[in-house]
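TASK: fixed-backbone design
INPUT:
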C-alpha cells in the first residue's frame, strides 16, 4: 500500500490523531506501507521511528544532465547544460519544466537564452514567494527553482495567449479534478491553439494540474490593471467556494479582493461593495454574526448613500442584513428591514 503526499503534520499533532489515522490502515504481518511526504516532521510522527524514514537524496549532476538531454531529445552544449542544472539545483521537476519550455520553442530558445530568461524571472522571485497565499505547510520546502521555472512558462503564456493565462489562473483556484464546466463558459472551450505549435493538433488544457501551479498563480499582480482583474477573479471564485461550503478558503480570497478594490477604487465603488458583501457572506456561513453584521451595515449604509434605496444592490444588502438579524434571533429588526425591502421591490418592480 502506498500513501502519497502525506504532508500535513497537523493531522498527526497528538496521540489521538495518530491513533485515529492509523486505525484506517491495514494491519497484517506481511503487509508493507510506503508513505511519501515532503515533511520530515509528518514522516517521523507517522512512523514513530526516525530510523524508518528514508530521505530521498538529491539527483546527482550526471543524472540531471542525462535527464535534461533526454527531455530535449538531443545533445546540448554541455557547459551551458551544467550551468542550467546547477541553477535548477538538480531538481527533476524544475529540469522537466525547463526542458519542456526549451523544446517547445526550439530553435529560438536555447539553453543559454533560457538561463538568461530564468535569471530575469529569478530577480522577481522574492516578491513572488513573499506574496504566496497558498498552503504554507504544503509548500514550505519547495525549491525556488521550481517556482521560477513555472514563472518563466506562465509569463510566456500570458504574453502569447492572455486568455489561456486567465483560464489557468481561474482553474488554479479549484481542486485538481472535476472543475465545473459552467465556471469556464467565458473562455474558449476544447483546444487552445498554440501560436508556436508546429503540429496540427495544438495544445489541450488538462484539468489535472500539479500543486506547483497553485503555488505560482496564487499571487497578487503588481500593476493596477491586473490587480483589478485579479480582484474580480478572487470575488467570483470566493462566491463559488461559498456555494461549495469552503467558507474559510472563500474568506481568505475575498479579503484580498476587498483590500485591492479599497486601495484602487475606494470603499464607495460598487465593485468594492460587492466584495465586501461576499466577505460578509463568508462570516454568516461560519456563524460569525457580529462580524457579518458590522460589514452588512457598512455595505447597506454606503449603498443607500451612493446608489439610493431603490437600487437592486442596495435592496440585496438590506436583505442580507435582515438575514443576519434573523439568525441572531433579532426578529423585530429582521422583520422591519424585510418589510422595507419587500415594499420597495413592489413599488419599483411591481
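OUTPUT:
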Amino acid at each position: 500500500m502506498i500513501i502519497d503526499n502525506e504532508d500535513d503534520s497537523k493531522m498527526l499533532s497528538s496521540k489521538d490523531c495518530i491513533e485515529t489515522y492509523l486505525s484506517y490502515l491495514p494491519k497484517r504481518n506481511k503487509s508493507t506501507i510506503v508513505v511519501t511526504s515532503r515533511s520530515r516532521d509528518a514522516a517521523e510522527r507517522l512512523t514513530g521511528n526516525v530510523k524508518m524514514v528514508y530521505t530521498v537524496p538529491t539527483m546527482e549532476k550526471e543524472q540531471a544532465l542525462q535527464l535534461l538531454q533526454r527531455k530535449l531529445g538531443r545533445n546540448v552544449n554541455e557547459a551551458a547544460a551544467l550551468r542550467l542544472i546547477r541553477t535548477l539545483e538538480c531538481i527533476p521537476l524544475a529540469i522537466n519544466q525547463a526542458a519542456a519550455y526549451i523544446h517547445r520553442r526550439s530553435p529560438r530558445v536555447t539553453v543559454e537564452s533560457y538561463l538568461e530568461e530564468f535569471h530575469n524571472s529569478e530577480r522577481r522571485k522574492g516578491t513572488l514567494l513573499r506574496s504566496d497565499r497558498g498552503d504554507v505547510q504544503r509548500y514550505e520546502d519547495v525549491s525556488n527553482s521550481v517556482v521560477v521555472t513555472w514563472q518563466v512558462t506562465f509569463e510566456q503564456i500570458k504574453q502569447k495567449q492572455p486568455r489561456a493565462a486567465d483560464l489557468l489562473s481561474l482553474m488554479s483556484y479549484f481542486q485538481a479534478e472535476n472543475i465545473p464546466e459552467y465556471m469556464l463558459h467565458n473562455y474558449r472551450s476544447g483546444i487552445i491553439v498554440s501560436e508556436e505549435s508546429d503540429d496540427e493538433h495544438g495544445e489541450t488544457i488538462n484539468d489535472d494540474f500539479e500543486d506547483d501551479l497553485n503555488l505560482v498563480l496564487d499571487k497578487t499582480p503588481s500593476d493596477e490593471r491586473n490587480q483589478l482583474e485579479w480582484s474580480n477573479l478572487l470575488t467570483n471564485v470566493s462566491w463559488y467556494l461559498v456555494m461549495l461550503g469552503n467558507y474559510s478558503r472563500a474568506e481568505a480570497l475575498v479579503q484580498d479582493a476587498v483590500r485591492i478594490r479599497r486601495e484602487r477604487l475606494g470603499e464607495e465603488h460598487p465593485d468594492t461593495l460587492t466584495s465586501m458583501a461576499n466577505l460578509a457572506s463568508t462570516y454568516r456561513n461560519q456563524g460569525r454574526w457580529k462580524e457579518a453584521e458590522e460589514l452588512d451595515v457598512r455595505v447597506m449604509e454606503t449603498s443607500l448613500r451612493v446608489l439610493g434605496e431603490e437600487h437592486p444592490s442596495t435592496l440585496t444588502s438590506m436583505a442580507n442584513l435582515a438575514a443576519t438579524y434573523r439568525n441572531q434571533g433579532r426578529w423585530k429588526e429582521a422583520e422591519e428591514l424585510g418589510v422595507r425591502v419587500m415594499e420597495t421591490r413592489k413599488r419599483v418592480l411591481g
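COMMENT: Confidence is low (pLDDT under 50) at residues 125-142, 188-217.
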